[in-house]
Design brief:
alpha/beta, 11 helices, 14 strands, binds nicotinamide-adenine-dinucleotide, binds (2S)-2-hydroxybutanedioic acid, EC 1.1.1.37, L-lactate/malate_DH, tricarboxylic acid cycle
């Protein structure tokens, strides 16, 4: 392999998403089959041994594209020279924890990680935040990396998009390959808005193809928006393989570009498009060309969609105000 390896940092590497993600990265699915990778695993000290165990298994796969693995509990080491950063590790909500406590605990993780990215990352660094609350954690990290272009910080809503594809395909008796431009607006939370009004099914408008507003409002949107909770209920643990899969999709498309005529969903820094508060990291329809995600412009937003998008962004603005009040941004 003659190409210089791409440095990929995964935080929370010993967690369940980490376990589902690392082998796919090392096998070439994140960046492509001609790109060698060097993995940098960041964990907290008590989980370093488990991360070492995962690294042993990675060794035992003899992946041709895997040029090395570093394991550390120091963000300054983990983000040194990083090209792709997957911020997965986060503090889950535990019993008795208020929303403010959760935001504060995560601030303690994403502030130093943002600072370390600012100080040590490669010039082309791209960051995807998976750890919840993903959009606001991304905002915290981004606000502590003033030397990194803000558009390099993104939050994951691709899992929500993938969930929406399957729900729509089932409803219409088509396959996911027949669907295009089905995207998520807003927060990765129960207020998110999966948008059928701009989506297409075999070239036809998806909302028209469904022709059932009650199903859209009372079934499709809540099923997609509450799928994370339904998985937790069923599995006794939050989604892991599907989250890892979505992270792969998000980075692969960012680096390699989205197919002609296709849109995807990503939480990106708002430039004020569609009346969304500037500076929030919120999900939009985006395309990627030349390694850059750009917000799709010029879409007409009807009153139904407007209300849904505004409600989700209002929730994000509240989260932003809460972390501001805590001095985290
Ligand atoms: P997990 O608890 O199995 O693993 C999290 C790991 O992060 C643990 O190994 C923990 O030691 C580590 N960690 C904690 N603090 C850290 C720090 N400061 N630095 C480095 N590592 C640290 O959780 P999981 O199932 O892998 O999920 C990870 C996160 O992803 C959660 O916040 C979850 O809610 C979120 N998630 C997001 C989406 C999405 O679509 N955006 C989907 C699923 C899960
Ligand atoms: C998911 O969407 O599966 C995760 O964000 C888990 C959750 O808490 O909803």
């Amino acid at each position: 392999m003659t190409r210089t390896p791409v440095n990929v940092t995964v935080t929370g590497a010993a967690g369940q998403i980490g376990y589902a993600l690392l082998f796919r990265i090392a096998s070439g699915q994140l960046l492509g089959q001609d790109t060698p990778v060097r993995l940098k695993l960041l964990e907290i000290a008590p989980a370093l041994k488990a991360a070492e165990g995962t690294a042993m298994e990675l060794d035992d796969c003899a992946f041709p594209l895997l040029s090395g693995i570093d394991i550390t509990d120091d963000p300054n080491v983990a983000f040194d020279g990083v090209n792709v950063a997957l911020l997965v590790g986060a503090r889950p909500r535990t019993k008795g924890m208020e929303r403010g406590d959760l935001l504060e605990a995560n601030g303690g993780i994403f502030k130093p990680q943002g600072e370390a990215i600012n100080a040590h990352a490669a010039d082309d660094v791209r960051v995807l935040v998976v750890g919840n609350p993903a959009n606001t954690n991304a905002l915290i990290a981004q606000s502590h990396a003033p030397d990194v272009p803000a558009d390099r910080f993104t939050a994951m809503t691709r899992l929500d998009q993938n969930r929406a594809y399957t729900q729509l395909a089932r409803k219409l008796g088509v396959t996911v390959n027949d669907i295009r431009k089905l995207v998520i607006w807003g927060n990765h939370s129960a207020t998110q808005y999966p948008d059928l009004f701009h989506a297409e099914v075999n070239g036809k408008n998806a909302a028209e193809a469904v022709n059932d507003q009650a199903w859209i409002e009372n079934d499709f949107i809540p099923t997609v928006a509450k799928r994370g909770a339904a998985i937790i209920e069923a599995r006794g643990a939050s989604s892991a393989a599907s989250a890892a899969n979505a992270a792969i999709d998000h980075i692969y498309d960012w680096v390699n570009g989205t197919p002609e005529g296709q849109w995807v969903s990503a939480g990106v820094v708002s430039d004020g498009s569609y009346g969304t508060p500037e500076g929030l990291i919120t999900s939009f329809p985006v395309t990627s060309t030349g390694g850059k995600y750009e917000i799709v412009q010029g879409l007409e937003i009807d009153a139904f969609s407007r209300a849904k998008i505004d409600a989700s962004n209002a929730e994000l603005a509240e989260e932003r105000d809460a972390v501001k009040a805590l001095g985290l941004i």
